[in-house]
Amino acid sequence: MEVLMNRRTLLAAIAAAPLLARPANAATTFVETRDGQQLFYRDIGTGKPVVFVHGWTLSSAIWRGQLDWLAGNGLRAVAYDRRGHGQSTKPPSGYGYDTLSDDLAAVLDRLDLRDVTLVGHSMGGGEVVRYLSRHGGRRIARVLLVAPTTPYALKTADNPEGLDRAIYDKLVAALEANRPAYLQAGMPAFLGANPDRETAAWAMAIAVQATLDAQVQCLRAFAETDFRPDLRAVTMPTRIVYGTADAPIIPVHARRTHEGIAGSRLETYEGAPHALFVTDRDRFNTELLEFAQS
Prior knowledge:
Blueprint: H1 2-16, E1 26-32, E2 38-44, E3 49-53, H2 64-72, E4 76-80, H3 97-110, E5 116-121, H4 124-135, E6 140-146, H5 165-177, H6 179-185, H7 187-191, H8 197-207, H9 212-224, E7 238-243, H10 249-260, E8 265-269, H11 276-279, H12 281-292
């Protein structure tokens, strides 16, 4: 019980801070993409850079538990809002992975980041591997994929471990019918079976900043994009982590992504949900720091 209370106290403390709080020594500004969109980003600290790509319907704010901590331990932490999410501009279209990975390239190029530890959560893992296949790995030293949706989430004749298109159609229909209810229903998978009220409210406040257009098109994109060829471009040291309390398809994705990236390392967080970097922050941060400094 004491461990549970300590965990809830930690989560509540994270959630209690203002959603868009600006850490000390942080730069918060915008990068312009090739097609004129403005991507909001947070940049704090000095040293080797760690760049975070957030998951579906989230924003850079979800990495709040990592940015200050890593900066305080001698690293530079950068996180940006995907187009259509957070404080970035919100076009009605442009949510395919080629465009999204070009947006990641725009951030890395604008800040001229090198020797990067690139962290992708959930659908953000697709942006990471598509970036590497389109732009190469000259800026990237190591990769961490957290609860990835790669390599291919859709069930097809040559991909029997994916999910039927009808399942994704139902998810889109539910999202379009009642977005708040859909997002709220996903909180147990995201934060665990019994998330505290403050943390769930914090995560919801982040999630609803994305537009419905972005949410629907991104859901379609990560469900339907085949990343199997892209995995060959991931040649640097790579770790893949997931929580055993995540949705059943995530361990399948993690295993298959591991099998598709030569020399990668697969790790589990026992009992952790989709947002394991929130619920198991201390372990995640410590292991990320060690990896980034390796």
